[in-house]
Amino acid sequence: MSVNIEHFKEILLMRKAELEKILFNISNEIDEISRCDIKDDGDFAAASMDSGRDYQIYLKQKQELKEIEEALKRIEEGSYGICEMCDEPIQEERLKIKPYAKYCIICREIIEKEEK
Q: Any transmembrane segments, and where (predicted)?
């Protein structure tokens, strides 16, 4: 495969560090909101909304971090850039957009259709 694995490894490691920092900050914000002295229903509603939004962001970022860690493991195992469904190489253009992709475009479309 002609994909520059070291280039993608560097991108994945940078994004991993960025996500870890974001997750740490969101976790601190959620903790801070939960410790707030809420005086009335309006404050409670605003705090709950902020906390809920932060938690949804946290879950999404946590999932991306998990996928990045899986991609880094595939790099170490020598299977990075190979579709987990059809064992064909994942196009470099797809990896540029989503460096932690584990499926080629065709297999990803099949999976999305099955999920609906």
A: none
Q: What amino acid occupies position 92?
A: E
- CA distance linking residue 62 with residue 7, whole number of Å: 23
User: Residue 101: which of 19, 6, 79 has the closest Cα?
Assistant: 79
Residues 76 and 13 sit within 8 Å (Cβ to Cβ) = no
In this predicted structure, which of 13-17, 23-27, 41-45, 63-67 has the lowest mean pLDDT?
Answer: 41-45
Packing angle, helices 5-35 and 41-77, rounded to 10: 160
Euclidean distance between CA atoms 69 and 61, whole angstroms:
12
Query: Which of the pair, 27 or 93, is modelled with greater confidence?
Result: 93
Rg of the chain (C-alpha set): 19
Rounded Cα gap, residues 37 and 116, in angstroms:
43
Decide if 60 contacts 80 (C-beta within 8 A). no
**Mean pLDDT (whole number) for 6-27:** 94
CA distance 104 to 1: 14
Instruction: Please state the pTM of the whole predicted model.
Output: 0.79
